[in-house]
Specification:
The protein is mostly helical. It is built from 27 helices and eight strands. The chain is globular.
Length: about 675
């Protein structure tokens, strides 16, 4: 028992990080109804700013085009560096609300989710750019002398200090929101904004203060916790944010005490798993610690799903319309033949960029089906793609299953995972579903992708994938003394064309109309005889299958894959560029592929600017994050929607259509673009 007590106490530090991040998430949700997926990124930026001030006296500026840093003349003392760093986090929180989420007050849940993802991507891109994605060992801040509880039970003091700080912060926040005028006003605005306005309170001002305080908490824990482990760009985003979301969900995004207790418990139980792995032979050696938050989130949503609080707001906009495709030979076949021709005339670098765009378009189409047609938010598409990629390696490389049977079977495996992650969609939706899929993607990454039994060891170069061959023709990207072969481009274009035709027929068919009915109003769809649960699961299955096809194309392109090929950050960027292109239309998916990071547009920009390397990649990420925010605020229909609206304004007005035939509800009819 002493061993378990040691690990439980040792996990207090990690539990405190989870708890304090969870408290910040509760604040942003109470203040504005937003689950801030960028909360961990704020902690990361603040921690790096603090370390840079302490070591070099340099203050990093988070905007491209400005000087990288302001120099203060030498290493800064602890207190001034702490004050400057915390002021930075507070300002970041305030500006994030005022510039991003205040304009989205009445936007649908999807717009808020993607805007939050955009902020996350932009901050992480600047962390990687300004601090060269370095791993930093931070000097101790809190007392770290060991505490002796018993003869065989000694633990470091700093984790216990963090746990105490988390408890104190939870008590202070509870008292403020329970007894002060500001706290009561925030609670009133969360229940009914009209009532708060009537009483003389400004919901915007209340939200701005809550976002500022939440960012202060994130910055504080980022600074205090960074000495406990090495500081990395994705530390607080991937390692701690998912458990913090689980803690906030257990607290129903309202209770500071329950959220703090849940966060501490998650961290301590995760730590105790290290001893469980020693004592229990069948216990998973990989992924169990990281999978616990996913289990906690699912349990919380299954038990509390229909009782999770929703914010009372003035009004909410609907998702953008999903236009009815109008395909023809000229619109479909001719462009694809032209793209095939490009692979025979473009130089190697342009071919790779074009391949990146085409594969990204396949992945974006998976989101068009799930999010554009059914309104279900998924942050795990690259996890499904990765499942297919690793399954393809097993089928093709180890079992010798030929092409195209192997990639189809691999995509079917991804379909199973997609349906499993989508099961909570039968009970939750919107932001809560986004949390589930994000946690599910992380669980898949930890349980599957980091298990060498499935992925291969790092020393062996990851999971190998042989070139696709059909009728004796090698369609691989590379062969002996032949790089960037056009044959692989022909294969990718053909696959994309098939997926486009499938999605087009889906949208035009009966199932597509059912999906749109579910997206519009689930109760009305059920009243019309549509099985809402079945429709959602079918959408998850189709979406995961398409994402799996994209994952197999990624595997064929690189020839070997590892967990880094399908990380959760990649899932967020897929959503980002799909939304920028237009997440409700096939044309939007194709535009998403065009503007994706490393794709055709950015490669051309790179050639024009003469930039290469990691700096160019970080710039692409930053531009993508900012573009995602702007798109969510100004043009929810994306680039494709903007082009449609421009064409419609240029056309002369048409006569009103005749009334629908008897027996056909007018609500089921949707005009062609």
């Amino acid at each position: 028992m002493t061993d378990y007590a040691f690990y439980l106490l040792l996990g207090t530090g990690a539990g405190a990080v989870i708890a304090i991040l969870g408290l910040g998430l509760v604040l942003t949700y109470r203040g504005s109804g937003v689950v801030n997926f960028a909360h961990g990124a704020v902690a990361t930026w603040t921690a790096y700013v603090f370390v840079d001030l302490r070591l070099n006296g340099d203050y990093a500026l988070p905007f491209p085009g400005l000087p990288d840093r302001l120099h203060t003349g030498g290493a800064m003392a602890f207190v001034p560096a702490l004050v400057v760093a915390l002021a930075t986090s507070a300002g970041l929180g305030f500006l994030t609300y005022v510039l991003v989420f205040r304009p989205l007050r009445t936007a649908p849940a999807l717009a808020k989710v993607v805007a939050s993802v955009g902020v996350l991507i932009a901050i992480i891109a600047m962390v990687q750019e300004r601090f060269a994605a370095t791993t930093v060992s931070v000097a101790k801040i809190l007392p770290s002398e060991p505490v002796v509880f018993a003869r065989d039970l000694t633990v470091p003091r700093d984790g216990l200090w963090l746990g105490a700080i988390a408890v104190v912060l939870a008590v202070v926040l509870w008292a403020v929101y329970r007894f002060t005028r500001f706290g009561l006003a925030t609670r009133a605005a969360a229940e009914d904004e009209r009532g708060a306005i009537t009483l003389g309170f400004s919901p915007d001002a209340l939200a701005a203060v809550n976002w500022t305080v939440a960012a202060l908490l994130a910055g504080l824990i980022g600074i205090l916790a960074s000495p406990l482990t090495q500081l990395t760009p994705l530390l607080f985003t991937t390692l701690f944010l998912i458990p913090a979301l689980g803690a906030a969900l257990i607290g129903r995004f309202t209770s500071f005490g329950v959220t703090c207790a849940a966060g501490l418990a998650i961290g301590m139980i995760q730590s105790s798993f290290l001893q469980v792995q020693v004592d229990v032979t069948w216990w998973p050696q990989i992924g169990a610690r990281e999978g616990l938050p996913f289990i906690a989130i699912v349990i919380a949503l299954v038990i509390l799903g229909k009782r999770l609080p929703t914010r009372g707001s003035l009004e909410f906009a609907r998702l953008p319309r999903a236009p009815l495709p109008n395909p023809s030979v000229v619109k479909v076949i001719v462009p694809f033949l032209a793209i095939i021709g490009l692979f025979f005339v473009l130089p190697g670098g342009w071919r790779i960029a074009l391949l990146t765009s085409l594969i990204a378009a396949v992945l974006a189409l998976s989101l068009v089906v799930l999010t554009g047609f059914v309104g279900q938010i998924s942050l795990a598409q690259m996890a499904f793609a990765g499942v297919a990629g690793f399954a393809l390696s097993r089928f093709a490389s180890q079992w010798g299953i030929p092409f195209p049977i192997a990639p189809i079977l691999a995509a079917l495996v991804a379909t199973v995972f997609g349906v499993a992650v989508g099961l909570p969609a039968l009970r939750v939706r919107g932001i809560n579903l986004a949390i589930v899929t994000l946690a599910g993607g992380v669980a898949i990454q930890e349980f599957v992708f980091k298990n060498p039994d499935y992925t291969g060891s790092i020393s062996s170069g990851g999971a190998k994938i042989p070139n696709p061959e059909l009728f004796g023709i090698d369609f691989g990207l590379t062969a002996k003394h032949d790089l960037f072969r056009p044959a692989f481009g022909v294969l990718v274009v053909t696959v994309l064309l098939l997926v486009v035709l499938v999605v087009t027929n889906l949208r035009r068919g009966t199932l597509g109309r059912r999906m749109l009915a579910v997206r519009a109003n689930e109760r009305a769809a059920a009243a019309a005889g549509i099985n809402v649960a079945t429709t959602k699961l079918i959408a998850f299955a189709i979406s995961a299958f398409i994402a799996g096809i994209g994952g197999t194309l990624i595997g064929y392109r690189f020839g070997s894959i590892s967990d880094a090929s399908y990380g959760i950050f990649a899932s967020l960027t897929v959503l980002a560029f799909a939304y920028i292109g237009g997440i409700t239309s096939i044309g939007g998916a194709l535009l998403a592929g065009l503007v994706t990071g490393g794709g055709f547009f950015f490669f051309g920009l790179q050639q024009l600017m003469g930039q290469t390397g990691a700096s160019q990649g970080n710039l692409e990420l930053f531009i993508g994050g900012v573009a995602l925010i702007v798109t969510a605020i100004l043009n929810p229909e994306g680039l494709a929607g903007a082009l449609r609206n421009r064409r419609s304004r240029a056309k002369p007005p048409r006569e009103m259509p005749a009334p629908p035939a008897a027996g056909v509800p007018a609500s089921t009819l949707e005009p062609a673009p």
